[in-house]
Design brief:
single chain; 61 residues; mainly alpha; 2 helices
């Protein structure tokens, strides 16, 4: 997601309702849903640690 505010909203809404973030985006394949959920978990972890989440994961490669 290029819009970090939308990602924060998605992650926090999913957390508040006890749902996976991918459950709010119908039409994702199983693997795409898994990837989104993992990315959201990492994003949330950064937020909880007071760190700024990475915007472009390609920087890790």
């Amino acid at each position: 997601m290029e819009n970090s505010e939308a990602m924060i909203e998605l992650v926090m809404t999913a957390k508040a309702f006890g749902q996976r973030p991918s459950s709010f985006l119908p039409g994702l394949s199983g693997y795409a849903a898994y990837c989104l959920d993992v990315a959201a978990a990492v994003y949330l972890s950064y937020l909880e640690q007071g760190k700024k989440p990475m915007v472009d994961a390609r920087l890790l490669l």
